[in-house]
Here is the input.
Amino acid sequence: MTSPNALLLQRMNALKDAASVERLSAAQQEAMDQIRKHRDDDARFINLYGPEEAGKTFLCWALREAEDWEYHPQMPESADEPVVIYDHGEADRMATRNLRNHASINGLATIVYVTHRPAEEVFPRVELAPGEDHYQTVRANWEALGLSVEHAPTM
Here is the structure.
């Protein structure tokens, strides 16, 4: 019998491997477009935020594939690319100040900083606020990947 943690890891790996712009919901595509616009405007810090299970991490994986940006599930010690995505960040002032210091020390051009609520000091902000159509797209993606939709995120 496979453990619940092993099943979760299998789902996450299947989703990570399938992450692409084509699988994004309209809400995720809109957020991606806003992130790209801010990047084109030379924004150094972009805060992507939204509720748990809204698809922020999947969007980050798609950004990594589409833009060849470096993805980290948390703030790493160093980065090899000038544009990085830090997922699972904290929104408080101390965390965002540490982020700014980290960027300066490592010479990072742009950071997409992912949080559950708006970061207190990182601008501009991009909110991923999905509606029911987003979750329908997520369920369709899960089904297409052979994943059990009973575990798919819902509103």
